[in-house]
Amino acid sequence: MICAQSPVGPLGADAADGAVTALVWGKAGSLTGGPLHRQLSDELAAYFAGALKEFTVPLAPRGNLFQQAFYAALSEIPYGETRTYGDLAKDLGVSAQAIGQACGANPIAILIPCHRVLGASGLGGYSGMGGVEAKVALLKLEGAAGLLI
């Protein structure tokens, strides 16, 4: 069962041990019902309606120590704000390229907001379905569109 119909397409999710492990673009994932599915569906609907700025659904992205630190840093970027790949690279002591690769491998995009990370002189990429257009749509939803001009 799809968790949300959204401006960036249908979204499903995978879960394990009571937490979301991946957001699935364009189809249903393994999370097909129950309290976690309801919470995620409700929070996504509220987010896309502009009424939710911070997700509380339990998340459990898989990854090594660097990836976990990266997910935590992404999650600290406030709604409607952005950082650059270079900003995060400096904070985490890695290259901007490593940040870009980690953004591309983020299994829980939107909930762990990699769309809020921009290049020093442009948007950068986006691994979610719809690519950069989806990134722009999410930034516009959050009121960060002024940053795109």
TrEMBL record:
PROSITE patterns: MGMT. NCBIfam families: ogt (TIGR00589). Keywords: DNA damage, DNA repair, Methyltransferase, Transferase. This is Methylated-DNA-[protein]-cysteine S-methyltransferase. InterPro entries: MethylDNA_cys_MeTrfase_AS, MethylDNA_cys_MeTrfase_DNA-bd, MethylDNA_cys_MeTrfase_DNAb, MGMT_N_sf, WH-like_DNA-bd_sf. It catalyses: a 6-O-methyl-2'-deoxyguanosine in DNA + L-cysteinyl-[protein] = S-methyl-L-cysteinyl-[protein] + a 2'-deoxyguanosine in DNA; a 4-O-methyl-thymidine in DNA + L-cysteinyl-[protein] = a thymidine in DNA + S-methyl-L-cysteinyl-[protein]. It comes from Yoonia sediminilitoris. Pfam families: DNA_binding_1. GO terms for biological process: DNA repair; methylation. One of its GO terms (molecular function) is methylated-DNA-[protein]-cysteine S-methyltransferase activity. Residues 66-144 form the Methylated-DNA-[protein]-cysteine S-methyltransferase DNA binding domain.
